Amino acid sequence: MGKALIIGAGGVASVVVHKCVQNSEVFEEIMIASRTKSKCDALKEKLDGGKTIIHTAQVDADNTEELIDLINGFNPDVVINVALPYQDLTIMDACLATKTHYVDTANYEPLDTAKFEYKWQWAYKERFEEAGITALLGSGFDPGVTGVFTAHAQKHHFDEIHYIDIVDANGGDHGLPFATNFNPEINIREITANGRFWKDGEWVETEPLEYKTVYNLPEIGEKDCYLLYHEELESLAKNIKGLKQIRFWMTFGEKYLTHLNVLENVGMTSIEPIEFQGQMIQPIQFLKAVLPDPATLGPLTKGKTNIGCIVRGMKDGKEKTYYVYNVCDHQECYREVGSQAISYTTGVPAMIGAMLVMNGEWQKPGVWNVEDFNPDPFMDALNKWGLPWHETENPELIDLEFTSAGEKA
Ligand code: NDP
Questions:
Q1: Which residues of 25-47 are buried (b: 16+ CB within 10 A; e: fewer)?
Q2: Residue identifier of the C-alpha nearest atom 1 of ligand 1
Q3: 152-337: CATH number
Q4: Phi, psi at residue 369, to the nearest 5°?
Q5: Ranges of each domain in the chain
Q6: I need a surface site. Which of 35, 46, 64, 322 has the fewest CB within 10 A?
Q7: What is the tens place of the pLDDT at every residue in 107-143?
Q8: Is the distance from CB of 59 to CB of 70 less than 8 angstroms?
Q9: Mutation test residue for ligand 1: of 105, 288, 301, 307, the one with most atoms within 8 Å of CB
Q10: For residue range 2-38, what is the model confidence (pLDDT) as tens digits?
């Protein structure tokens, strides 16, 4: 069907490339372009020989002119941005200049402020409309599949959704004392930031990891879940009409939190630049350099992830509760594509989003979140491409008030 330019060559990009190659009828030709070309070449070497033609290139995705040259040279139908959130705007600028569709998995975050918000990318809406091209934002798992799950619940199960709890559980263990499952810098910035949830039309702010609850997850069991701010809360609070509350919960083990506390207390998670031996460095970037590369966790990680949405609302005049989730096995992912489940659950939806933009099913000039589109082809593709989902009615619920079910962590 066409050509995709994949920017980035890290954990998530590796899965995107594997999945595009599996889906060679759609992705006839791909280019992997990243800062370190040797990583792109290594991926090409591993996957060359199938029907998809693979090219590689070096690119600095902070540099719009370089990106424009690259896009003009390859002429892709879509750019899949799986570099870092810092590059979202430069890549969107290049897509505008070349009239190329855009897909990413994480919203823009300025390097010097740990504050991710859609406002910068939503501000491109009119320009994308005028250029006649689609930007699909946040097509990973969360954000991404969680928004598609919500749109599916809205379309097929509810007249009005009132409450959503998104629960992201990683029951996997890599056996290392401390490591993050995706880019450590992005991951730690997210977790050490203040928590936030949306209630009755307003944001309620919490201390970082201030509230926890215990939830019994299918195929994983009981886990401590901590309330975090997560980027899909912003778009879902805006897009789901009648919503009264939305919260996001993530599981963390005690060992992980103890390490994180110590690192925070000694200043290692700070993004404030300090002078070190005549050079300005951000402590968190130094920390990233000494932590295990998430891409190396694949062979070590055992266990499963479970990510899903617990939804409450009204159907045919009656109250209804509903749960939709995916369970993903780290070892199975490793056997299939050489990555653990966190990269897998992000890379598969990125490929699916790009496919739907390319085949026209999710093409609409402007800047959109996943829940703005018909969820059906995405839900079907999840089953086909490795992330089958399950749905149940009357699931266990998380108390709407913190005072009873939630406790101060
Ligand atoms: P990695 O750090 O493993 O990979 C990032 C890649 O981007 C690296 O190959 C890196 O190059 C490249 N890169 C960074 N800066 C530039 C630049 N200026 N120019 C060109 N290439 C650059 O990260 P992950 O694969 O773990 O994560 C990728 C994205 O996925 C992130 O945005 C992350 O937030 C998002 N994500 C989304 C999730 C979701 O569910 N929605 C879940 C997990 C991740 P180099 O190799 O040289 O360092």
A1: ebbbbbbbbbbeeebbbebbeeb
A2: 10
A3: 3.30.360.10
A4: -100, 165
A5: 3-141+339-385, 152-337
A6: 46
A7: 998 887 767 899 999 999 999 999 999 999 999 999 9
A8: yes
A9: 105
A10: 999 999 999 999 999 999 999 999 999 999 999 999 9
Decide: residue 50, CB within 10 A, 0-12 exposed, 13-18 middle, 19+ buried: exposed
Contact partners, residue 311, CB within 8 Å, separation at least 6? 150, 153, 157, 158, 161, 163, 164, 321, 322, 323, 324
Residue pLDDT, tens place only, 178-225: 999 888 888 888 888 899 999 999 999 999 999 999 999 999 999 999
- Amino acid residing at 243: L
Ligand 1 center from residue 167 Cα (angstroms): 23
Q: How far, in Å, from the CA of 116 to the mean position of ligand 1?
A: 15
Q: Whose structure tokens read 């968190």? A: 284
Q: Which residues pair with 54 in a beta bridge?
A: 30
Whether this model's pTM surpasses 0.90: yes
